[in-house]
Inositol-1-monophosphatase (Chania multitudinisentens RB-25), 267 residues
Amino acid sequence: MHPMLTIAVRAARKAGNLIAKNYETPDAVEASQKGANDFVTNVDRDAERQIIDIIRKSYPKHTVIGEECGELVGEDQDVQWVIDPLDGTANFIKRFPHFSVSIAVRIKGRTEVAVVYDPMRNELFTATRGQGAQLNGYRLRGTNAKDLEGTILATGFPFKAKQHAPAYINLVGKLFTQCADFRRTGSAALDLAYVAAGRVDGFFEIGLKPWDFAAGELLVRESGGLVTDFIGGHNHLNSGNVVAGNPRVVKALLSTIREELSEALKR
Ligand code: IPD
Ligand code: CA
Ligand code: CA
Ligand code: CA
């Protein structure tokens, strides 16, 4: 196993155990608001601290980018650990048992290893660039859907940016006539892991942050899928507008996105 994947897995499991333990004791969870419809808890912060401690022990010079801590620039800026300590905080607060820990390592801008861990199901999704994606050690493959007919699509509502609500609802309406059904699970990292595992055929969301999709993107790629922005390019690293699935599903999603979304949202 890639040595950085070993550390990422150790950190994800440790944080996942902390999250699972706190899930059982809701009175110990303190939620506060970061912005409109945007919540954080003491568990998000504690999980992130545990992850960073584990990384720092092995790699004291690496740079860390975490949702709650921001960018901790290290002596070595070529290596960046991109962390979402708890993806699906709203689910966690509501005690809806679907959330994850997401950790990716980028070297000179290219993601090399990825972990998404679901502590409620003990499902560990891992990938190393060029070596495939695994779930608990078993090789993953996405679905082989040829177009959107019969597909199950995952998505996330733009709940922090409701100015996009009309455009988004319109797009979902159009896609709903082409696919079988939708899922909105509340963890973008798991949505991407589920694309890699073939549990859903495709995924799209407006305005994600790098830590939401850094690990999931490598999982999808290493399972044979594609991850792009809304015009089939790579600007999702800046815009957070993400489309994922096998190449044919991505093509079909992009064609409807192209027709329905305004220029402003297209990258
Ligand atoms: C959120 C989840 C959610 C997605 C949001 C993310 P958080 O992350 O991934 O599924 O729809 O866009 O912000 O805040 O729970 O880590
Ligand atoms: Ca958050
Ligand atoms: Ca997230
Ligand atoms: Ca988070």
